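Re: the pair you flagged

First of the two:
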Amino acid sequence: MRGPHNLWRLIITGATFERSGAMKLALEAMDVPPRLRLAARVMGWPFAWLGLKGDPALPPVTRALTALGPAYIKFGQVLSTRPDVVGAELAEQLTVLQDRLPPFSVAEAKASVAAELGQPVDAIFAEFSEAVAAASIAQVHAARRVDTGQKVAVKVLRPGIERAFQKDLDAFHFAAAMIEFLSPASRRLRPSDVVAHFESVVLGELDLRMEASAALAFCANTARDEGFSAPRPHWDLSARRVMTLDWVDGIALGDIEALQSAGHDLVALSERVLQLFLSHALRDGYFHADMHQGNLKVAVNGDIIAYDFGIMGQIDEYTRRVYAEILMGFIRKDYRRVAEVHFEAGYVPRDRNVDDFARALRAVGEPIFGMDASHISMARLLAYLFEVTERFGMQTRTELILLQRTMVVVEGVARSLNPALNMWEVAKPVVGTYIRQNLGPRSMARDLLRTARVLGRFGPRLPDMVERALQGQVAAPPPPPPAPRRSRDFVLFLAGGAMVGAGVALAALF
């Protein structure tokens, strides 16, 4: 249900941040302007007594996010990879959200496995350990198959996780609708579409059969990638709430000291993780969209191992070409071409000036070049980029949300290994190879051949299709009358309540 009752959930969000002491720390860490910081504290303080208590043993921000539930924990996982945005201390505190949350009991896990697979656990697994990792949605147990003796990882969803996520998703939908109602300027960012996209991703993550399918497809795409591997699923021991995969050993990518002690080259790892992501996104159009340190390991031979395939991203071939041209334009400092690509793709309204947009993009890109990451404030860069997009009327592209988000996460992971990483230099060979293979004469020939095949298939039907389309336009019924306006008092009630609830919640989160 997405009605006004969700105001309560949003108020609880801000109240929990205030009660736990997280509000002040989060606003300071993210360098929020003093006036907005004061407004957030004033709005949140009266409701602090309503906030969830959480675990007092945890740091304040981690305490607030874990108390609020899985959707908020997901948000914290992303922030844990961005020390340049939230500060090194807060980012370190948030790493606990990746795979070290309190587990549910092994008895509950075994009961869920037995119910899903239709057999007692002892009949399937000769060994079944306590949880070895626990995250926001599921936890993992080490086990050994009875039939083959192979060691495997068994992933089990948390009890009641579907209902918990749905409650937060409903609140997010309501907040997005109220933000669009109260701030028409925000509609270009399409917050409701963003939340709907996030919901589709989350619902897919709550069905482990979909994750197993994603894992198999990803393994097939990346089978020949040097220095990379991924565990394969066991279909006979997987179901909606349980998934079994190959067991993989390695050092967590976030354990810098252990990686150094094992003799791994951190600079090489930082470059490889970024190049692998770009290769998967551009070459395959199918990429791991949750590549934080908790989902990455380094094998003894130095291979990067990715696992947890609940969130995968997919982009079509045309969008990949646009994305590659934009990246290469920034790499070459050809801001005019970057601007033209935005206009050609329809990302910027055609009534805007391409030269003005190119100059604005130069102001975004130039500070990056010639500097190492330790001298770049990504928070300020993103803030300026937001100003540029607002000025030129760009709308949020929901098909690129996961790509943009994962790029931020992967860059954060890479910089945790090598703070001096120059992402543009590292990206250049991957993007250049893609452009040579997909934007030259050879790719044009492939496109023409594909077009000819489509026309050959549908050619005999084209006249009828055109005729039906034209007849449909002529016979189109008149648009329905506008819905009756709600009473002024009710609208003011919603607006006032939403300003308090959404304002407190968004101040806490952003």
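Second of the two:
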Amino acid sequence: MKKIFLLLTSLSFFNFYAQNTPLYVGTYTNYESEGIYRLQFNTETGELSEKELAIATENPSFLTFSKNKKVIYSVSEGQKSAVTAFKLKPNGKLEFLNTQSSNGRGPCHVSVNTNSTKAVVSNYGAGTVSIYNLNDDGSLNEASQVFDHNSKSEKSHAHSAQFYKKDLFVSDLGRNGVYQYQLKKDAYQLKSSSIIKTEGNPGPRHFSISKNGKFIYIINEYGSSITTAKKTKKGFKQIDHDSTLDENYTGKNSCADIHLSKDERFLYGSNRGENSIAVFKRNIKTGTIDKIQNISVHGDWPRNFTLDPTGKFVLVANRKSNNIAVYSIDSTTGKLTFSKDYAVPTPVCLLF
């Protein structure tokens, strides 16, 4: 009986960790939070557990992994505007590797290219974008390029940037444009001031690029909308523009984050104010989208959200209500069903 008990215990232990994947949570540390937290997410049940502090650090408001997932990069919206590299320890906690200046106030986003040789940081306050060469151990060199998006007539608020193959796209909320840079002789050069023309003051914040690079989906913070652009021989062309709000909602709102589903049949966006996730069905051929659901985030101010590695769940970081809400995804319709929420202090970024 003792052997059977030990065998069952071992199997239960193995199954628990086989189904679990670590989730790292970036936060603001001006309340109860102390830095970056680590939880276990069960990809079968959708449950979060084992919350622990991975490392104490100031305002790690956005996180991203290196390709080999051995290093996490974090911006710090603190007294020193910086980007920092943390090494993953065998126990899942983080160890400080090195830090560099973000070259501007209010760093709010960081991303890494596919082979982890470069990182890019967007500085909302300063309107600058900094590019860093990465060392073999994942540490950061000083910025090799810094782009100032401010003009004499317009104040820049660079809000996010992503690499796609040899190109770099930058979303500028202040100047209402998405800029495209091309890599030439290991340096990026501006190709277009904005890939599309915008009307009014929509405030492009984050964006999602389809795997084939033919479509870009831009979520607009001020406009509470998503702009869809299609790649053409001459550049990009706007093909769609959709509200993220329920037709009956009349209050204030600020959009935040956007993600395509794993199979790219659906698109999700977060609303701060309406406090909802907007769900869109996507036409894979034409790239156009149609809204099919607005569902409550069961909290306040959804800053960032993510899909789990299996593509079966959506997790939402509700900054003001200090909780993470978990939803299951209907694989046929793409619609979300609320499962449960978990207490985490001022969560603003979720990283699997």
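The longest strand covers residues 48-56.

-B.
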